[in-house]
């Protein structure tokens, strides 16, 4: 019980930065990204990916996003810079193996690129509702934000999948990857995501209710893909958890592995819908 309470205190800041939105969200996601990168790198033992490249890549992306003139087009130049940095890190051929170079590539795009979509959702798809403001007229995203759908879909799937699996789970889903996951739990997780996202849309995003339900359904599936993908990586690396920051739940990366998939899903869903004029 004490571990659960401690975990709640540690996870609470994530909910706070989602509520604040804006620059607070950018700073918060950047901090989580750095922590996740440290955990990711630490799991590789001696053949660690380049910390300099990972850190430089994150700084270039978030720093560039804070420049108004670059905000809408930062991803393309960032990708180019990151690829160049990854190759440069392998120029010391006697000290760096191909495996380390590939691990660096993976960290850049698996952790930094995917996590950054949380910021993109908040920045480019604000809800058409006057935001809250605090002293000095600083706007807050508040409870009316699509970023909540990102979080609800990921965590909702995880919670409902766990309890459904415990209560009625019988058939194994991917026994060699994650022995405890069941088909029944997987279905329950997806339905739970739809339920939570639908309820959130009904009460807080009524104009986007259909979108919340659609993202909830797709996210309920894709968040599990994200969780299983992380399990595959950890199994290949021979580690149980990415870290130990959150008592009883591993590290930061263990808690956001599903969000790394639901955030891009939400962004590109809204992007395509907007592009089609739907």
How are the SSEs placed, and which strands pair?
Elements lengths: L1 H19 L1 H21 L8 H15 L9 H14 L9 H27 L7 E3 L3 E3 L6 H22 L3 E3 L3 E5 H22 L4 H29 L14 H5 L2 H17 L3
Antiparallel strand pairs: 1-2, 3-4
Q: Can you give a write-up of this model?
A:
With 278 residues, the protein is mainly α. The chain has one domain (2-275). The chain contains ten helices and four strands. It has helices spanning 2-20, 22-42, 51-65, 75-88, 98-124, 147-168, 183-204, 209-237, 252-256, 259-275; strands spanning 132-134, 138-140, 172-174, 178-182. The strands form two sheets. It has a two-stranded antiparallel ribbon. A hairpin with a 3-residue loop joins strand 3 and strand 4 (178-182). Helix 4 (75-88) runs antiparallel to helix 5. It is globular and about 55 Å long.
Key descriptive features of the protein:
278 residues; mainly alpha; two-stranded antiparallel ribbon; 10 helices; globular
The level of helicity is: 55-70%
Could you tell me the number of beta strands? Answer: 4
- Major beta sheet summary: 2 strands, antiparallel
Number of domains: 1
Shape: globular
Distance between the termini: 47 Å
Average per-residue pLDDT, rounded, comes to 89
Structural class by SSE content: mainly alpha
**Compute the gyration radius: what is it?**
19 Å
